[in-house]
Amino acid sequence: MPSLKTAPAASGHTVEYPRGGPGRPGKPVGSITRGTTNPNRLRRMDRWLSGPSAASVKKAADPLVIDLGYGAAPITAVELHHRLAKVRPDVEVIGIEIEPERVRRAKALERPGLSFRQGGFEIPVAGRRPAVVRAFNVLRQYDETEYAAHWDMVRARLAPGGLFIDGTCDEIGRRATWVAIAPEGPVSLSISLRFGAFVRPSDVAERLPKALIHHNFPGEKIHRYLQALDKAWAEAAVLASFGNRQRWLAMCHSMVAAGWPVLDGPSRWRLGEVTVAWAAVEPGYQGL
């Protein structure tokens, strides 16, 4: 087993780097995940990244995007490259997987702007700083005590203005959530639901990112937020005959009126999406 060096992390956790220190060759950081994936599973997050958050790619000096832990099949990296190329034609997507056989199989799909390599949270890109790192359905398979150190490790490698996206979704992408993390720390939580795939907004709770999924109980901010969404959704039931989209729009307007720091607007709400500032949902028991 290689020797490790440790470094303090902003979260208060300790990050363990492979031998040689951060950015040097060594054993990949992370664990092999189940690797399950499906075509179009991450379309909701891709739509957000190529939409309201496209600036992180459009304005990047080096339009490097990492699909970290893409799983047993590389389809999510292929789809991400296709979608982001419409925003930035010279975008470069690198799919990174810790399991060598998954990388070997993906090599057949390489093309200009899309490649695959072995690695983990250390992001083995030879000193380059990614504009975006996406890790979807990866950290949810880790222990709760581990996610913060991995957040710190990845965000320390981002380009200025870059984003690390830690997200979770169901098997076919109908219910999704993700945290956007800047080099300075977490920025926002997004919830994106397919109309007809939920009864209440809080049905997404089982798909919350690892940072929040164990904090959905009274006294925690994320619980209060989901309960507020449910209440606003119930109060908008009078609009149900006009369709779930109109009801969702009314719910979001109510959340804004109630003072929640919602960061997007009707063009995103129409898609079954809503994004709130991280401070409104961050972990930390508040008491009853």
From TrEMBL:
It comes from the Bacteria. Residues 1-40 are annotated as: Disordered. InterPro entries: SAM-dependent_MTases_sf. This is Methyltransferase domain-containing protein. It comes from Crystallibacter crystallopoietes.
